[in-house]
Write a structure and sequence with these properties.
By secondary structure, the chain is mostly helical. The protein has one domain (17-57). Helices cover 38% and strands 0% of the residues. The protein is built from 2 helices and no strands. The chain has helices spanning 2-12, 47-57. The longest helix is centred in the first third of the chain and has 11 residues, at 2-12.
Length: 58
């Protein structure tokens, strides 16, 4: 999915940095990111991991 997004990014001439990371521990300092997206993730993720992901985002 990241490869597809990067291809569209280049075609559109956008400057977007895509990352494929551990969603529970990204290592980014607070208030670093403007946007976080998830697609097809939480319905296949165990509850405890989902809670960790949401805590990392917020």
């Amino acid at each position: 999915m990241v490869v597809w997004a990067e291809a569209k990014n280049k075609t559109a001439g956008l400057n977007i940095q895509w990352r494929h990371e551990n969603a529970e521990k990204t290592g980014f300092p607070d208030v670093t990111l403007d946007l976080v997206t998830m697609a097809l993730l939480l319905h296949k993720t165990p509850l405890q991991a989902s809670i960790g992901i949401l805590q990392e985002i917020f």
